[in-house]
Amino acid sequence: MLDDFMWRAMLAGILVAMAAAPLGCFVVWRRMAYFGDATAHAAILGVALALLMNISIFLGVLAVALVMATSVSLLSGRGYAMDTLLGVMAHSALAIGLVAVSFLSGVRIDLHAYLFGDILAVGKQDLWVIGGGVALVLLLLCWRWSSLLAATLSEELAYASGIQPRREQLVLTLALALVVAVALKVVGVLLIAALLIIPAATARPFCRTPETMALLAVGVAVLSVAGGLKSAYLLDTPTGPTIVSLAALLFMLSTLISQGWRFVRQRFALESERFPMR
Questions:
Q1: Range with lowest mean pLDDT among 52-56, 189-193, 267-271
Q2: Helix/strand/coil for 24
Q3: Which residues contact 24 (CB under 8 A, 6 or more apart)?
Q4: CA distances from 130 to 42, 90, 120, 123, 253 (A)
């Protein structure tokens, strides 16, 4: 039997996976991988500000992640290349956060836990916060799913349907900031982007519709969390990195399977052309 802390860790990881995976599909479709990374990097600054102001770390991280995500959305396309803007803001926020943490006198902070996560330390109150954040993200995605898809596929199509792509991008940044805030305890700043991107990228070769990809990505993410926790427990390895390592392994397997199937189909097509059935 697993101990209570393992069940709490499992539940927290599954909840985060349920929100991160479908949101990660939009990150992959929009080619916003660095966007998620930049928002996650800003979390350390949120931790430092929360400790300085003696407020909830969740609220501090959420506020800074929202400011970062909204700033990038508003500044993109206004004389700044997106990758340049993300690079400047991501590394600046991380560096300023680390410097701010060093000025916290009398406050003991475990940077390793914030950088790589500490899922085994999730308590009952953390579960309520994570569950509430995940519920908000899922409700937001369900409510705006069609509009987000239209804005992702084509801005012209979105405008023709009466949808404002800028507004949908802001909705996406809000959801992304919420996921970063709730996932901080589970996988940490440096691994949040991986949990967003890898399950979606793993599911992509096997899906024909966006909804199928989102559901399969959730399955991959949940499997990564459950398998990663069990592996970390048996092998005595860091939990957050183990979860992401298993997700990376599933991605490599999916790539090999999809490439192998593509090779077989191409070979079969060539054989059919050379020896057509009469």
A1: 267-271
A2: helix
A3: 36, 195, 196, 197, 198, 199, 200, 217, 221
A4: 19, 24, 14, 10, 30
pLDDT 10s digits, 6-37: 888 889 889 999 999 999 898 888 877 777 77
And the tokens for 94? 């991380």
Q: pTM to 2 decimals?
A: 0.83
CB 41 within 8 A of CB 91: yes
Q: At how many degrees (to 10) do helices 189-203 and 4-29 cross?
A: 60
Q: Do residues 44 and 189 make contact, with C-beta atoms less than 8 angstroms apart?
A: yes
What distances in angstroms separate CA 189 from CA 49, 65, 68, 181, one per listed residue? Answer: 16, 11, 14, 9
Q: CA 248 from chain center: how many Å?
A: 14
Q: What is the mean pLDDT of the chain?
A: 81
Which stretches of 103-164 are DSSP H helices? 111-116, 124-153, 155-160
* pLDDT over 70 at 276, yes or no: no
Query: What is the total residue count of the chain?
Result: 278
- Among 24, 70, 27, 67, residue whose Cα is nearest residue 43: 67
